[in-house]
Write a structure and sequence with these properties.
By secondary structure, the chain is α/β, with parallel strands linked by helices. Helix content is 42%, strand content 16%.
């Protein structure tokens, strides 16, 4: 006779209902930074002046938090369109940061139940959310390696587009983590190739405040060649990382379709009002960006003069990528000296022994350089 203990089947686990690929993943983690100089996330080091803090607090305190977001969302879209110089016939969709917009675009282009998976293509190394969004939304991801010096491999990109016919091609402009602003002609030719086979190109301009060019100028100048281009930006690098506000600009018909998969009320009244307030004081943030661009020049010069830094690449963002002899040891040494940077050396083979540093204020950069020099 079999005892109840041995005859009873193992009860099912609720964890078994979670997708196997999700269970195998590692969650996106933010490095603990208490007590450290945080130079790992490309944040603006400058806080609002005291008078603007008080004015913003008064406005946020007067909001009707008992109501869902309403007409002020339309006001924010209009303000962003004016700030960015949105081309005629285009529209805007808002996101909880650009991360949500990346998810929405993948969701809108996925082909569940059709037996034919859509493809998302991007140069690599690049932003980690591109392959992650493809995985989670059921698209195939194709990464096309950059050159050894982090330039676009145009022939490889064109060949990959012809072979895989991607639904979405991402061009980060500038790129993360390399801070590269790629050749304008090569980018347009890739856009043309993607458009010729009916694909969408997403130009990710998260770091636009620090770049010397923006693709929106080409969208206005050559609308027909860029009729399948979506321009994605965020206010995080503008100076509002804590507000979580991204926006996507594109031809009205395309944006209308993406907007259908957006969760209702995805932008809170607090996010909305803080963004409107910041745009009303855009000059303050523009001055901060100009100061950071100047500090970037000084930081690059100091890095290139530092024994032990094998290379520091040119930057068009508020970050600098550099290569050292031992990235892991240098990273730990800097952390022990209370400076937190990003060790990107395991993200892609091309990034071997690379660290990514945020460009901060003069004082922050000096402290970071001292920790780096002592850790090499």
């Amino acid at each position: 006779m079999t005892s109840p203990a041995t005859s009873a089947a193992t009860p099912p686990s609720a964890l078994d209902r979670i997708r196997p690929d999700v269970r195998a993943m590692h969650a996106y983690t933010v490095q603990p930074s208490a007590g450290l100089l945080k130079m790992d996330a490309m944040e603006n080091p400058f806080r609002l002046p005291a008078d603007l803090q008080a004015a913003l607090g008064e406005r946020l305190g007067a909001l009707a938090l008992n109501r869902y977001p309403g007409d002020r969302i339309a006001d924010l879209k209009a303000a962003l369109a004016d700030y960015a110089g949105m081309p005629e016939g285009h529209a805007i969709v808002l996101g909880n940061g650009s991360d949500e917009l990346i998810t929405l675009l993948a969701l809108a282009c996925a082909q569940p139940g059709t037996g034919q998976r859509a493809t998302l293509l991007a140069p690599m190394p690049g932003f980690v959310m591109y392959p992650l969004s493809a995985q989670l939304q059921g698209l195939d991801f194709v990464g096309v390696p950059l050159t050894a010096d982090f330039e676009l491999d145009e022939p490889a990109m064109l060949a990959a587009i012809a072979r895989h016919r991607p639904a979405i091609t991402y061009i980060a402009y500038p790129n993360n983590p390399t801070a590269t602003l790629w050749d304008e002609g090569a980018v347009q030719r890739i856009i043309d190739a993607a458009g010729a086979q009916g694909g969408i190109v997403a130009m990710d301009e998260a770091y636009q405040p620090f770049a010397s060019r923006t693709w929106i100028d080409r969208m206005r100048a050559e609308p027909a060649r860029n009729a399948h281009v979506l321009l994605m930006r965020t206010l995080s690098k503008f100076g509002l990382a804590g507000v979580r506000l991204g926006y996507l600009i594109g031809p009205g018909a395309l944006v209308a379709e993406i907007d259908k998969v957006r969760p209702p009320y995805n932008v809170s009244v607090l996010n909305c009002e803080a963004a409107l307030f910041a745009l009303e004081h855009a000059g303050v943030f523009a001055a901060q960006a100009a100061e950071l661009r100047q500090e970037r020049t000084a930081l690059l010069a100091a890095l290139r003069a530092l024994p032990g830094v094998e290379k520091a690449w040119d930057s068009e963002a508020n970050m600098v990528l550099l290569r050292v002899a031992d990235a892991a040891r240098t990273y730990e040494g800097m952390k022990a000296r209370q400076v937190l940077v990003k060790n990107v050396s395991t993200m892609h083979p091309l990034l071997a022994n690379c660290l990514r540093l945020t460009v901060g204020s003069a004082a922050d950069n000096a402290q970071m350089l001292a920790a780096l020099q002592a850790s090499l």
